[in-house]
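From the pipeline queue, job 12 of 40. The input is one protein chain; the requested action is below.

Action: predict structure.
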Amino acid sequence: MIDRSAMVTEREIEPEVEQEYEVERVFVRAIASTKYSLSEERARMRSVPRVYKTSNFKWRGGPQVWHKNILNPSMGIMQTLQASYEELAPGSKSQRHGHQNSALLFVLEGKGYDISDGERVDWEEGDVCFVAPGTVHQHFNSDPEKPARVLIVKTKPVYNFANLNFQEFKEKAPKDAVAGFQDYFPEE
C-alpha cells in the first residue's frame, strides 16, 4: 500500500498579470517545414532588409518613459535578440523590475543612473551599462532639462525559449509627468 500522506501534489497557480500590452507579443517564432532542410529559412533570412528606420516604429508608454521595440522575434529577423529604443523624459524614471536575462543599455544621449539591487550605477552618453541577470533595477534620467536616450539589447528570447522566463515588476513607471514636462513627447 502506498502512503499518500507524504506525497506532494501539484496545484494550479493563479497567474498574476504583471503588465498588459496593446498587442500580442511573440517570444519565439516558429520555424516550420514539411522537409528536413533549413535552406528555405536561411534564404528567407538572407533576404530580409538590413536597415530598419526607427522612425517607422511607434513610441509607446509615457509620460516619463517611452519605448520603441525595434527588434524582436515576431519581426522574423532573428530569434535570439530583442532590442528597444528607450527615452526617459527630463528628470524621469522607468519602472522598477527584474528579469532573468542580462541586458546592455547603450547610452546614446544624456546622463542618468540605474539602481540595481540597491546599488547606484551612474552612466552618461557613450557608456554601456550592464544589467546583470536577475537583478531588480530601475533607470533614472538625472538631467532636469534634457531627455536621456538608450538602446537596450537583450537575449530575452533565448531565455524564454529555455523556459527561464522570470520577469517581475516591482513598481510601474509613473503615470504622472514630471512637473514642467506634462506635454513631453519624444522627437523622432
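Job complete. The chain has one domain: 23-49+57-171.
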